[in-house]
Amino acid sequence: MSGPLTGAIRVPGDKSISHRSLMLGALAVGETRVTGLLEGEDVLATAAAMRAMGANIVREDSGTWSIHGVGVGSLLQPEAALEMGNSGTSTRLLMGVVASHAISAVFTGDASLSKRPMGRVIEPLSQMGAQFEASPGGTLPLRLQGACPAVPIEYRLPVASAQVKSAVLLAGLNTAGITRVIEPVMTRDHSERMLRGFGAELSVEEVDGERVIEIHGEATLKPQTIEVPGDPSSAAFFVVAALLTEGSDLIIENVGLNPTRAALLGVLREMGGSVEELNRRDVGGEPVADLRVRHSALTGIKVDPAVAPSMIDEFPVLFVAAALAKGTTRTSGLDELRVKESDRLSTMATALTLAGAQVEEAEDGLTIHGTGGDPLPGTEEGAQVTTHLDHRIAMSMAVAGLASRNGVMLDDTSPIATSFPTFMALLEEAAA
Ligand SMILES: O=C(O)C1=C[C@@H](OP(=O)(O)O)[C@@H](O)[C@H](O)C1
Ligand SMILES: C=C(OP(=O)(O)O)C(=O)O
User: Is the pTM value of this prediction over 0.90?
Assistant: First the structure.
């Protein structure tokens, strides 16, 4: 087991908000200024794409990002393929942006992204008039010819996905009339908050238990000054690491706690975890707090599938917490985890089993019988884990390594740089 995690740390800016800051800044007329932007590879892919379509985006020496936008409807034809790397958010949201502009774009990605389903955005964007030539199974690489004018649609989301919702809303920005998205299950609402913040006419109504979001097209966006809060999905690794490591008492400052993102904390508290929210405040229209996390004995629970969308990226590290809890943790309703950077149910089941945990994999979730706080036994030379180009697997299994007798060996730590380039350094700092 590792030494305790103590002191105060800050995790980098929120990935979802960072992507949207660049996209909306590039679609506004004038200068948007962003502090706390996540400088991970995924967000940098979005920045490069917006530059390729005409925005002027500069990182100043102070760390502030300055974006001079071109205005909704005025994106330029990119000269080369838009290289999306590992980033599903960049790809799906930008497909929405391009879909209602009079330009075409080729989207390419790495081996992981090239396996992920794009049909979920191709479908509604085709209804709006965009045309696609995709690789077999509706995957990258694909070519998108935008429609201008595009046709406003009403679209009920068949999967709980903030990326699909956002793609349609972003396409609606340059579409005359009202584009309506119906969300049976609420997902992260950063797009709604930020589109409003940039001056788009957007309404949200609750009708018969569903969220109905309307955006008025041919919008003019006004540039903004944005302070990006710390990413709760990045903080999650430190929350779990501190809960599992004896003697830990760690402060994680400035963590975004939008209710559509924060369900992990409730689940960990229900398991017996000591996670306090200090100094609750508002940063850039998002609730934020400092978290104080103390080592705690955890008990397994049955996780309500209804919370899944509000912690969708946190399941890999929750599975690590479950592997060290007393008793059994059951999860279900997690089919979406199979189409992330890797199949996160099977990748985590394999990785945790190698580390010595007792895991049963079902179609839509994992059941994990925890050690009751004893270190994971693993193998003498350390469990050899394959991360499948998935940053969240790499970081989750690094946390599992802290709580294991012989450590964990990751085949590839490079994917961590997609969302959390300072993860290893911060872990060393907190454990020093
Ligand atoms: O909209 C976003 O910024 C995101 C939405 C989620 O994806 P889905 O919409 O595919 O669930 C999440 O997994 C991803 O990390 C970021
Ligand atoms: C699923 C994720 O990201 P994306 O879909 O943007 O690749 C993630 O960060 O866990």
Answer: yes
